[in-house]
Write a structure and sequence with these properties.
Order of helices and strands of chain A: HHHEEHH
Largest sheet of chain B: none
Strand content of chain B: under 5%
Number of helices of chain B: 12
Helix content of chain A: 55-70%
Largest sheet of chain A: 2 strands, antiparallel
Structural class of chain A: mainly alpha
Low-confidence stretches of chain B: 1-14, 252-282
Mean pLDDT of chain B: 79
Low-confidence stretches of chain A: none
Radius of gyration of chain A: 20 Å
Helix content of chain B: 55-70%
Order of helices and strands of chain B: HHHHHHHHHHHH
Number of domains of chain A: 1
Strand content of chain A: under 5%
Number of helices of chain A: 5
Strand order of the largest sheet of chain A: 1-2
Number of strands of chain B: 0
Radius of gyration of chain B: 20 Å
Distance between the termini of chain A: 33 Å
Distance between the termini of chain B: 27 Å
Oligomer: heterodimer
Shape of chain A: extended
Shape of chain B: globular
Chain lengths: ~110, ~280
Amino acid sequence: MSTELVLLAVVMFAATYPSRALGLLAPGLDRLPRPAIEYLQLVGPAVLAAITAVEVMVVRPENGSPTFHVGVEWLGVLACLAIVGWRRNLLLGLIVAVAIVAIARQLGLPSLAG
Amino acid sequence: MREDVPALTEPGPEGLATPEEARRRLLIEALAIGVSAGGFGFVYGLAARDAGFSPIEAMAMSTIVFAGAAQFAAVGYVASGLAWPVIALLTFLLNARHLLYSAALAPWLAHVPRSRRAVMAHLLTDEAFALSIGHFRRVGRTDERGYWIAAIASTFIPWNLATLAGVLVGGSIPEPTRFGIDIIFPAAMIGLAVGLISGRRELVAAFAGAIIGVPWALFVSPAIGLEPSTGVVAGGVLGPAVALLVPSALAPEHAPLGSTASAERYAMPGSHFDDADRRPDR
């Protein structure tokens, strides 16, 4: 069984860990000025929304530039958003999102995977 | 606090959820994220298997790297024969958003021993960040156990078990995307974002992050030779800056709903409501 890529995993860890650790381990970040605190409080919603938008709206072909994608995935995400906003139930939101996308794909509607 | 969009957890008598209420809420959300991590990890296991990763290699990625998007990208990089230094550089760029997470969590976790913070850093993911910071805000103080629940129980364990399942048994499942598994991750992210939106500024930050991230991924990143996923970093950095332009008079988080407690609910340690005497874990 091949283990060559275990070393690549270590290399990728070395490229990832500093970003994760800098804020938590660097001295002084626990006493930031108020504007910085206010900024950091807004990072979560911004990053999470950006992840969602890029995931469902941008598709990158194996060879070529990224393209804008419109598909049933939007509906799944919007349904999850509505359910979490309305019922405060993330699990239900995920189940509905998966169901919408799975049913749409069974019916032959476009998929994120193309 | 927006009155038209109530918070995920109703505040307790003092404006904060009790620790029991907050932890119960955390466990419910952790269950949902565990399902999400499981589904996403399973798809990763399938992709790794298809790219020729052995089970040991796939599991090494999931335990040592433990960064879903970077792992998916690495599958593509390896399949296309990209050089390892380039993979390392792309991984760094892809995971740069964790710097924002760790900086945002730093004030909350400042009193945790350094050795434990070093371990926490390795387990810091999109999911762990969103779950734990939402939990800290609800309870109004640091709850270290909450972080471990968010990072290990809801993410690390399901992710790794699902990776193992995907790489071992995935070959028997034809076209897994037809089951909609790939929608779990983006849907979970937006669901978690809802829990962090407690005022107009957060709402503007979310919209701005998305609106900036997509065009960046489509147009800017290819033009300057970066991965489309750097749109996430662009949205995460610029979105909050746009939101700060919302006048404070329009930002209800600065207008307490009749009590200091309701404002305290959204304060972080070190900010204007920092009061060590009222945080029992200090």
